[in-house]
Write a structure and sequence with these properties.
Distance between the termini: 86 Å
Number of strands: 14
Strand order of the largest sheet: 3-2-5-6
Number of domains: 2
Low-confidence stretches: 1-13
Mean pLDDT: 87
Structural class: mainly beta
């Protein structure tokens, strides 16, 4: 009985599973997962120096489910690697706890090029313009201030994406009133070409108030 007591170990957590989903809501077409145990590197996200527990795991192509082949310690982590569709030819690496987490939603950045023609003089004075965007998982839209209220302007940047579809809108701001939506674009899936190009104008001859 003493020998049995000495050889006892703290029981490991049950076999958890992980579901890996990309920004289109489906499992990524490529990638793999490592099951690791953190080392003394603290919050360093690289797997170097970590103890490898399970190598190399692949998710199911239809459900995105990953199943380990060994029992998983309570401190284990999933290390998920997958190509980024936006921009292509780059990879994402995500580390997350293996217990208490059952879904890994990979994120990406959507490159956007916005060309604006602004010449509005009718009505109240334009205070500013901004770019508003939100995706299917956003609790509230994000906004980016744009420079200038007249003339031609160009914006180049990347918008963080969690899940398509994403709506991108141009807002005109006036003092004391709610912002007016000048133009809007709904992107349902990953674009075929990058960056996503939007050509918008806010001129006096438009029907906007």
């Amino acid at each position: 009985m003493c020998l049995c007591a000495l050889s006892c170990k703290v029981p490991s957590a049950p076999f958890p599973s992980l579901v890996v989903l990309d920004v289109d809501g489906f499992p990524p077409g490529e990638g793999f997962v490592l099951l690791v145990e953190p080392s003394d590197l603290g919050s360093n996200p690289t797997p170097l120096g970590a103890q490898l527990l399970d190598d190399t795991l692949f998710w199911d192509g239809e459900s995105g489910t990953v199943l380990p082949t060994c029992r998983v310690p309570s401190q284990a982590q999933w290390a998920v690697f997958s190509p980024d569709p936006m921009p292509p030819h780059s990879w994402r690496h995500v580390r997350l706890d293996a217990t208490g987490q059952d879904t890994c939603r990979l994120t990406s950045d959507l490159p956007v090029e916005l060309n604006l023609r602004l010449s509005r003089s009718l009505g109240s004075t334009v205070e500013a313009y901004s770019l508003c965007f939100s995706d299917a998982l956003s609790h509230e839209p994000d906004t980016l201030p744009l420079e200038g209220t007249r003339g031609s302007h160009r914006f180049s940047g990347s918008l963080p994406i969690q899940h398509f579809p994403i709506r991108v809108s141009l807002l005109r701001h006036h003092v004391g009133v709610a912002p007016h939506v000048v133009a809007s674009h709904m992107q349902e899936t990953v674009p075929h070409e990058f960056p996503l190009r939007l050509n918008w104008s806010d001129l006096d001859e438009t029907d906007a108030p």
